[in-house]
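Listing S7. Sequence submitted for prediction.
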Amino acid sequence: MNKIKERKQKTEKQKEVQDLNLLIVRYLRAINIFGKLRMELIISIIPFLFFIVFLAMLLIGNSFYTERLIRNIDRTGKEIKELQSEFITGRSDLMFRTNQSQVAAMVEPNGLFESRVAPFKLVINSSNNKKDKK
């Protein structure tokens, strides 16, 4: 029984191949609409047609890649502008907070006050230092 099933499967496969061949022949004849092209010429052109189709697919893929790259570049540009504005805002806030008057106002609640007396220089006699060291 297995041999019978195998024969049926082989005949079915052969029939599928014949149908495919018939379909290809019909397609080639449809291409030869005016009857001026020979079948050998049509068959010899097929590799070139596959090459053209391959190039078209590369072109389509390249255009999709380029569009995606442009979208990413635009998105990155917007992020850069946003981060730049945040940086400028932070820098100006830091400059404002580090002014002497602002620092004095921030530490005043802690009991620290700005000195009203001008600083003075301490002078140490070097002769006293030499005697102490000996």
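Caption to Listing S7: primary sequence and predicted structure tokens for the chain studied. The chain has a mean pLDDT of 84. The helical segments are 2-31, 39-97, 100-107, 126-133.
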